[in-house]
Design brief:
The protein folds into two domains: 3-42, no CATH class; 49-148, Sandwich (Jelly Rolls). Helices cover 0% and strands 46% of the residues. It is globular, with a radius of gyration of 19 Å. The strands form five sheets. Strands 7-14-9-12 form a four-stranded antiparallel β-sheet, with no helix packed on it. A four-stranded antiparallel β-sheet has the order 8-13-10-11, with no helix packed on it. A two-stranded antiparallel sheet has the order 1-4. The protein has no helices and 14 strands. By secondary structure, it is an all-beta fold.
């Protein structure tokens, strides 16, 4: 049996300012939550990578453009992994500070952005039931992604 495993961890932190005669500035958990939130899971899969840009452990990144119709389209799958490379092109020479918008593919031009990730950020979506459309908020963004079924 082939399995995809994932873990997630979220730490809601707050910064307490310097208090003269009391303490220096410090960061701590948010008072109402007081801990790190996390979980994990696993999904069986058929070992199929629907994105043909993977070979020998290397991904040939693709460009998500800001113009509708020039984004990256994904399909429903067992696991969708998306990473904003932090660069505008595959050669990784121009840094990108633009956000990568992940939209419902039913109407990529004017559809709602479901998720937006920043430079260097990544997300995994277990069992997305709809096709996604990856679109740069501005300029182009080099994207590493994997659609696993």
């Amino acid at each position: 049996m082939s399995v995809i495993r994932w873990n997630v961890s979220v730490t809601p932190e707050v910064t307490q300012p310097l208090e003269a005669g009391g303490h220096t500035e410090f960061t701590t958990f948010h008072e109402d939550i007081r801990r790190t939130l996390g979980g994990s899971g696993s999904i069986t899969w058929a070992e199929t990578i629907n994105d043909g840009n993977w070979a020998g452990g290397v991904h040939t990144e693709e460009l998500a453009e800001a113009t509708s119709g020039n984004g990256i389209t994904t399909a429903a799958c067992d696991m969708l992994f998306i990473k904003h490379s932090g660069f505008q092109e595959v050669a990784h020479t121009t840094v990108s500070t633009d956000r990568l918008d992940i939209r419902d593919n039913s109407n990529p031009a004017s559809g709602n952005t479901i998720i937006s990730i920043g430079s260097g950020e990544a997300i995994c979506l277990p069992k997305p039931e709809i096709a996604m459309y990856l679109l740069a908020a501005a300029n182009t963004i080099s994207v590493e992604w994997a659609e696993l079924t």
